[in-house]
Design a protein that fits this description.
The complex is a heterodimer of chains A (267) and B (296). Chain A has 267 residues and is mostly helical. Chain A contains 14 helices and two strands. The interface between A and B is large, with 93 and 93 residues.
């Protein structure tokens, strides 16, 4: 009896999650006349028209490539520089460690809206405006602290005896770190990379403020569907569906660790 | 943690992070501070303006002060509403999740899916979903005889944005609580069964205390994220109807990038940031306290 109640509760929640997604997906397969002429729960004629349009338009393709590039750059940068820092925070005490850690976290909590204008000025001044680097670096603002936080949690789970044994065995610190320590926290690195991917992929305000035409992200190209002739609903829906695919793919790989990741590695 | 060795050379390991974050937080912040204390007559000529911008902003009798107070109130109300709905709902759903089994993997993927959708796509999705002509939700509500139009009625606009946020982020609370629940050893439940404890007693005496820590993280993250919300309401309502859903960050971006009113925007940014930092600090302190109690 109790189990049935749980199942129903969970089922309702999952249903509520899937309903808006379902609506978007079926919309992307409808013709615009069908969309605007009334509600239908299944496309009367399945059309791939909108997807066809996106795949054959160089602007959309370029947008997709741009988005993937800055997300990948950001993920690599964030995790690489966060690793040694997370190790230091977990294993040692040093002058001002607590304050620096809090200051890092505070950047995670800073509203992107506050940074939109000064980032525009900064990246314009250093000549990176409208490049993938501008967005990749800007997203470091919240992704680097996040990666440090998650990795620190996972590193806390590795016993310190391993470090000491390696030192006695004559490993130098860089060799120990790369050969022994990094493989040990592989899960943590995967989860941190996943979160960096996620927050860089979904962010919109900075990504659109820091780019114009050369490095226009996919989500900014979506504004092309609003035209003088009215909304191209089908095209908008198709583009939206395409943005969900990378996330759904990546999440499959970390599904067993994701809950621990959300708890920042500390359960 | 008193047994950690003191080693100031560890600073070298932190340096790269420090460099990056300084570049992307302190340098831009200085521009903001600069604008906040100066005024301009155009042509890039700035002069010292003292705290005049702040005085205007924090005085509700001025235009900008009134606008700021309104936006701040709306944002705080929104954050509180988000917490009041998402935290209990998230705990409830997490309690419904099976602890073992093959269904767990796919279930986790579906639950996490909303969080991996770009925020403006989430906005677009709900903009479509809530429309009364082509959206399922809007049409259904109107069909039931409830007047619902998120571009005209403030109540509709608010409930759309609230529903969207619940849809988007409750999963994070679910995953956090799920992680916390899984960390409870089966022995605890067995002991409770032997004692003949009721479900509610198990929840209050075993599960809730163990969820303490993840719940602090959940409340912190949900408060901050909802306090900085920008893209989704921007796409769905654009801050309207009127100013009904014009939250702080929407107002800030409008002031800074739309009206190029730099002084006002900068002062707003600093006050906004200060509020965020204070809340963050309170939670951070709470978290380290919990850690210490656990260890000590």
């Amino acid at each position: 009896m109790r189990h049935a109640g749980r199942r129903i509760g969970l089922g309702l929640y999952v249903l509520a999650l899937l309903l808006p997604i379902y609506w978007l997906v079926i919309m992307s397969f409808k013709t615009n006349t069908e969309i605007t002429s009334g509600l239908t729960f299944w496309p009367r004629h399945f059309v791939f028209l909108h997807y066809h349009h996106i795949f054959n338009d160089p602007v959309w393709r370029h947008g997709f490539l741009t988005s993937v590039t800055y997300v990948a750059l950001n993920t690599v940068i964030s995790v690489t520089i966060a690793l040694p820092a997370a190790y230091a925070f977990n294993r040692y005490r040093f002058l001002g460690d607590k304050h620096v850690f809090f200051w890092l976290l505070s950047n995670l909590m800073a509203p992107p809206a506050v940074y939109a204008m000064p980032f525009f000025n900064l990246y314009y001044a250093v000549g990176l405006f409208d490049t993938v680097w501008a967005v990749a670096l800007a997203h470091c603002l919240f992704n680097v602290p996040l990666a440090v936080w998650i990795l620190e949690g996972f590193i806390a789970g590795v016993p310190r005896e391993i470090d000491e044994t390696a030192e006695i065995d004559g490993y130098s610190f860089p060799r120990f770190f790369v050969r022994i320590f990094i493989p040990l926290i592989g899960n943590g690195i995967g989860v941190a990379a996943f979160f960096c991917f996620m927050f860089s992929w979904v962010e919109q305000l900075l990504a659109t403020t820091l780019t114009a035409t050369n490095a226009q992200p996919f989500i900014a190209v979506m504004s092309r569907t609003y035209s003088a002739a009215g909304m191209d609903w089908g095209l908008l829906a198709a583009a939206g569906v395409l943005t969900m695919i990378p996330g759904a793919l990546v999440i499959w790989f970390v599904r067993n660790h994701i809950a621990k990741g959300f708890a920042l590695g500390r359960v | 943690m008193p047994d950690k060795p003191l080693n100031n050379k560890a600073w070298f390991l932190v340096l790269p992070v420090l460099g990056f974050v300084l570049f992307s937080s302190l340098v831009p912040m200085m521009t903001v501070v600069n604008y906040a204390f100066q005024d301009t007559m155009g042509q890039n000529h700035f002069f010292w303006n003292g705290i005049a911008w702040f005085r205007h902003l924090l005085d509700p009798s001025t235009d900008s002060g009134q606008r700021f107070a309104g936006a701040l109130t709306r944002t705080l109300l929104f954050s509180l509403a988000v917490l009041a709905i998402e935290i209990p709902l998230g705990i409830a759903v997490a309690l419904c999740m099976p602890r073992h089994g093959r269904a767990i993997g796919p279930l986790l993927v579906v639950i996490a899916l909303p969080m991996l959708i770009p925020w403006n796509v989430v906005g677009t999705m709900w903009q479509i979903f809530a429309r009364q002509d082509i959206g399922l939700l809007g049409a259904a509500l109107n069909g039931l005889g409830i007047p619902f139009n998120d571009t005209q009625y403030p109540v509709s606009a608010w409930s759309t944005i609230l529903m969207m946020d619940v849809w988007h982020w409750t999963s994070m609370v679910v995953l956090l609580c799920y992680a916390g629940l899984r960390a409870i050893p089966d022995a605890f439940y067995q002991a409770a069964r032997i004692d003949g404890a009721r479900r509610w007693a198990v929840f209050i005496n075993i599960e809730l205390p163990k969820l303490h820590r993840v719940l602090v993280i959940a409340v912190l993250l949900r408060f901050m994220e909802s306090f900085m919300i920008y893209t989704e309401p921007f796409v769905v309502t654009g801050g309207g109807p009127g100013e009904a859903t014009s939250f702080l960050s929407l107002d800030l971006v409008k002031t800074a990038l739309g009206q190029l009113d730099l002084g006002n925007a900068a002062a707003m940014s600093l006050v906004y940031l200060l509020i965020s930092l204070t809340v963050c600090w309170v939670f951070f302190t709470a978290m380290t306290q919990i850690d210490r109690r656990r260890e000590g």
